[in-house]
Amino acid sequence: MRVYGYSDARECANASRYLANRSDSMVAPGRALDQRLASLSRRYPGLLVIPTTDRHVEYLSRSAWASANANKMAGCYSSGAALRALDKESLSGWAVHAGISQPRALSAAAIRSEMASLEFPLLLKPRSIHRHRNWLKGRKLFVCKNLRQLERRLDDTRIVADEWTVQELIPGPESEIVVVAAYRNRSGAVHTFSARKLRQYPPGFGSASLLVSHRDAKAADAAAALLQAAEFNGIAGIEFKRDPRDGKLKLIEMNPRPSLWFSSATGCGEYLVHRQLEDFGLIETSKRSGPGRVDRVLWRYGFKDWYSAIFYKFKRVTGLPNPDSTVGRGYRKTWAIWDRRDKAPFFAELMQYARKAIQRVLR
Length: 363
Hints:
Layout: H1 31-43, H2 54-62, H3 64-68, H4 75-79, H5 81-85, H6 88-98, E1 105-107, E2 122-126, H7 133-136, E3 142-144, H8 147-154, E4 164-168, E5 177-184, E6 190-201, E7 207-213, H9 217-230, E8 234-242, E9 249-255, H10 263-267, H11 272-279, E10 297-300, H12 302-314, E11 332-335, H13 344-362
Parallel strand pairs: 10-11
Antiparallel strand pairs: 1-4, 2-3, 2-4, 5-6, 5-8, 6-7, 7-10, 8-9
Helix pairs in contact: 6-9
């Protein structure tokens, strides 16, 4: 099986020996990518397209090529469900329909009339984060410690109130976050893998940098119910946090695509992308590789988790206790980037960090 990858920025994956187009992988979403995909679909009738960034989710949901080739991707992109999943308001509606608990949230546009009832600290989040990534610079949200901070943020001209949400901060460390990797196939069956975050990058409110495999039936059932309520066919990563005040799992976010931490599922013998390949008839079930499901696996994104580990030795995140990262001791380890069979992405990322460090010094 041949793998082609396209991105509009130099990523460590561009260096992977498994990529068939390493010399032609820098292509931005748009007409040029339409042309590449059209060429590939003529060459490979069994082509399956899987986006791995929010920007590419948006591209597939609106691209002319994708509209004419809906059979070459999961149904969530042609139906618009994936695009709606990126919007916090749509996601909240699905959660209500599925009976899933959520943090209290209000539109930033309507917050002025609710100022007296707010409890701090709280979170100010964009409804669609991928549209604000350039100036957020790696952050997902803002933590507001008091009313003055919130008002100052809302006065920022880059924050259009209709596009932002004010949300309560669920207490407890980030090690109480459970993530579920899920695939809902074309017949409606849902396959899941669950894990528990131990640390994130950036610390407190970011993507997983350290997590452990963790069977959580309640989280898996909630994820399946959410996908059913959304009529979402495809791969998704769904995040919950257990609220110590009532013991309930609260829905945090949903990504309508694979995320980097999905490789922890592979480390446990659960191959969700292979599930999709089976569903599309591109591989036989008996040929799906892997030793079968195993547990007690610790997944780490080395460079970023080292930063977060050092951060927590000297600091803490506003409003949250430090996470418990001792859970995974003695577990079998797997890594986000490092692979003995494919070392180039590791060194490519190392060079990226070195380049960024030099640029900062020269500013």
